[in-house]
Design a protein that fits this description.
This protein is mainly α. It has one domain. The protein has three helices and no strands. This is Flagellar hook-basal body complex protein FliE.
Length: 103
């Protein structure tokens, strides 16, 4: 099964996070996996907050916020949340596998 996305589509705003996570951070913050995970969770949270804000603006009939823009933000937040759940499930499975190993 090939899940590659063609280069003709515009990348989502949070997709570069995985590439940035591989490089060590030199800004005095957390380094490595924990920093990458924290950044990814903050990105997902920000996307969900933005989607919620846009939903409220559409409900208040703000003319500067389009329904299309709101639906795209909701889908981005949903995809990010689903990816976060997959990562969490894999981490729990890896932890369970390690704990069940015989020494």
């Amino acid at each position: 099964m090939d899940l590659r996305i063609s280069s003709s589509t515009a990348p989502l705003s949070g997709t570069g996070l995985a590439r940035r996570a591989a490089a060590p951070q030199n800004d005095g913050g957390e380094v490595g996996f924990s920093g990458a995970l924290k950044g990814a969770l903050q990105s997902v949270s920000a996307a969900q907050n933005r989607a919620t804000d846009l939903q409220q603006e559409v409900q208040l009939e703000n003319p500067s916020v389009s329904l299309e823009q709101t639906m795209v933000a909701i889908q981005k937040a949903q995809i990010g949340f689903q990816a976060t759940l997959h990562v969490r499930n894999r981490m729990v499975q890896a932890y369970t596998d390690i704990m069940n190993m015989q020494v």
